[in-house]
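Title: Prediction job returns without error message
Component: structure pipeline
Severity: low
Priority: P3
Assignee: unassigned

Description:
Job completed but the reporter wants confirmation the result is attached to the right record. Sequence as submitted:
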Amino acid sequence: MRTGAVDVDYPATGGARAALVVGDAPTFPAIVQERVCWLEAAAPYEPGAFYKRELPAIRAVLAGVAPLSLLIVDGYVDLDPDGRPGLGAHVHAALGLPVIGVAKTAFRTATHAVAVRRGGAEKPLYVTAAGLPLDTAVAYVREMSGPYRLPDALRRVDALARGRQ
């Protein structure tokens, strides 16, 4: 099951750098592909509409990549238990892929997100999902490769998005 993890960074100088890592399983036992895409311009940050800024960069980094079965995004799928869409819900709707949202910080209205502690860390990750059962998403995140709070694949895609090769 080809699984991708994406992240986007916005350097102070402008533009956006989107990164993708691909594994051959949702737990990323190995990264089989990496890709970085630079966008000269990025939409300004708009409170409550973060997806407008992120979605074009995610589409760009996925362009031309062999089909994926699952995508992991840095953030929430839904922002509250009533289903107010977050980045992951917009990605799911736009791309038709199951999406797991892995957020590093708690969002006050996301009381439905499942807290996942990894690597002996006190601070959890917050997991949400669209297109697959939440308990399956939680299990994948718990079992993702790496000994730290943040799984290795998510650490790697974050570093690529920030320009740290």
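Comment from assignee: result matches the submitted record. The chain has one domain: 3-161.
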